[in-house]
Design brief:
Blueprint lengths: L4 H83 L9 H5 L21
């Protein structure tokens, strides 16, 4: 073997420099790919966020409309119930409304209430 150590060293240095150049080119290409991927992903995330906000807005509006309709129906039912309750005759054991509303001057009780128990005398 007739190998010159100086020539081998120079050859190895040249190969190493070529490898470094190729690795630097690959690093630059990877950085460009990463930049493109990052911007694409960020655009997708921004679009997703806008869609999410729009969907949430639409759902909230739909729930508000449903709630409004439910409240309107509820009001109608209660008004109908009130009409039906107002149609019910008073219970026979109750004094007539004229007597309940008519009070003697200076008295806090109705005329049919009986003797007063506020003075301590029974």
């Amino acid at each position: 073997m007739d190998v010159d150590p100086e020539a081998a060293r120079r050859s190895n240095i040249s190969k190493t420099r070529d490898s470094i150049g190729q690795l630097e080119d690959a690093l630059h290409a990877s950085a460009q790919d990463l930049k493109y991927a990052s911007s694409t992903i960020q655009a997708d995330l921004d679009r997703f966020q806008r869609m999410k906000v729009a969907d949430l807005r639409d759902m909230t509006i739909a729930v508000a409309k449903l709630h409004r309709d439910w409240c309107q129906k509820n009001l109608e039912v209660w008004l109908e119930a009130k009409k039906e309750i107002d149609k019910i005759e008073p219970h026979p054991n109750q004094p007539p409304p004229e007597l309940v509303n008519a009070k003697e001057p200076g008295s806090d009780e109705s005329p049919e209430a009986g003797p007063s128990r506020t003075n301590g005398v029974h």
